[in-house]
Amino acid sequence: MALVWGGVAGLRTGWLHPWERAGVLRPVPHGLGLVFTGSGLLCLTGVLTFIPVGDVLVYLLTIGACLFLTGTFLLGVSRLPDCG
């Protein structure tokens, strides 16, 4: 949940954690990456906590993994220099 709130704060105000300020060159992909990564982790831990039945388990695991991987990709993109 802290990742999601940190991402929302970064998107709304441009704020970054003090230990990330030197490496992050683009704050918008960084904020989106935090929101997606946090949402994916919440989805995956929710699956482990509540253990849904039937096909819902497979769908939640797939959605959580996709969100987590998309967020991780955006966090990497935020550290690349802007090309334009």
Could you describe the 3D structure shown?
- This protein has 84 residues and is an all-alpha fold.
- Helices cover 70% and strands 0% of the residues.
- The protein has helices spanning 2-13, 27-50, 55-77.
- α2 packs antiparallel against α3.
- The longest helix has 24 residues, at 27-50.
- It is elongated, with a radius of gyration of 14 Å.
- The termini are far apart.
List the keywords.
84 residues, mainly alpha, 3 helices, 70% helix, 0% strand
Short description:
The chain contains 3 helices and no strands. By secondary structure, it is mainly α.
Instruction: Quote the beta fraction.
Output: under 5%
Kindly name the structural category: mainly alpha
Number of helices: 3
Q: Tell how many strands the DSSP assignment holds.
A: 0
| CA distance, first residue to last residue | 33 Å
Radius of gyration: 14 Å
Low-pLDDT ranges: none
Q: If you average the pLDDT, what whole number results? A: 90
State the share of residues found in helices, binned by percent: over 70%
Main sheet attributes: strand count, strand direction, barrel closure: none
Overall 3D geometry? Answer: elongated
The run of helices and strands is: HHH
List the helices and strands and how they pair.
Blueprint: H1 2-13, H2 27-50, H3 55-77
